[in-house]
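Notebook, p. 212. Picked up where the previous page left off. The plan for this session was modest: take the two constructs that came back from the sequencing core last week, fold each one, and keep the raw output in the notebook itself so nobody has to go hunting through shared drives later. Recording the first one now, exactly as returned: residue sequence, then the structure token string.
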Amino acid sequence: MGIIVLLICISLAIALLFLGGFIWSMKNGQYDDTYGPSVRMLFDDKKKQSKKDGHRPQ
């Protein structure tokens, strides 16, 4: 029974380490997308045509 308590304590400590690392990485901008905006500007936006006319464009 004592080993279960020890394993739970160790697993909680490891989980807290991972949580702390995740929070640190979020605060330091590790997940910011620096590549996306530079590529996004190369592609044209597709214009959406309204379907108020009732016919499809050809």
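Okay, moving on. Second construct, recorded in the same format:
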Amino acid sequence: MQKKILYWSLLSIPIILIIFLITLYFTNIWQPTLTSTIISLVLLCFVGIFVYYLITKSYPSYDQTEKSVGEFDNNIRQRIWKLGIIGFIADFFDTIGIGSFAISIVLLKLTKQIKNNKKILGTLNIGHAVPTCLEAIIFISLVKVEWLTLVVLIAAASIGSYLGAMFANKIKLGWAQIFISIVLIIISIIILLGQKQVGVMPSPGNADSLQIWWKYLVGAIVFFILGALMSLGVGIYAPAMAVTYLLGLSAICAFPIMMGSAAFLMPIGALRFIKDQNYEIKPSLAFTIGGSFGVICAYLIVFIGIQKGLGLNKDEFVNILTWLIIVVIWYTAGMMIYEYVKNKKRTRKQTQP
């Protein structure tokens, strides 16, 4: 019975998203453009295909995995709830740009909800694939970005990630992390100085389009590089926020661009983990369901609730988002430096006689 409820819940996600968007449409919050509608429909098809593939591949093995883990899985109902809450929290913060993987790993280790650590990466990729697509659909549908800007930057990141995977083993992740973290800190200082509360230097802009040809070129090159770095495990969110700001785009424009870039990549990568059975079924399903609700709640609370509740106009809300971006960039840069130092210490210990 529990198994059927879990899988029916998984099937309900695309339906809930459609109902959510229709509700926003009739309340005049969603005013779709042709480009945003096409991209959203493509991503919705991605979600449908991915959910179908996940169900057909995992459903026959569900009971076998339940028996194989013994005492670890005795209270399966309680475990599913815990995993669902972890997915909800992780994707809630992912929706505001902080990222879901680091939070998921910390909470999984604290609650001891995953048995095989070697399957964490596959579990996270599969469990967060659908919520990431939902984020992209919501932001692409609801945030106005010029179609060419959106398509060029998302396509550049997607191509970069695909080609970057071929050279992933030839690039040292540690040096890439240090370089990006230093660049992020410098950019965050520039953003901070451009805030109207500080007012030391002018803000680059508040546009929804790159407008000038050289900005399209620079944006495409940088997002190609960011996409390539994604294949090394370097998150795209904070760098994308920084780059869109420097290119003169509004702070909120970063969200559909970075979410869209991730959404076109994660399901494809996750399919490999499903095919190789390199994941744990229950955490993946619980993350998908809990994370999907986390995405919707985050958008309603942060991007609609705060703005409407506090009576903020667009400029005031964008100003708050820019402060959020600064915090996210500092957090990401700090985590990269921390990971670099930790890996260095681990390598030293392993090389010591």
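Notes on construct two before I forget. The radius of gyration is 20 Å.
Flagging for discussion at group meeting.
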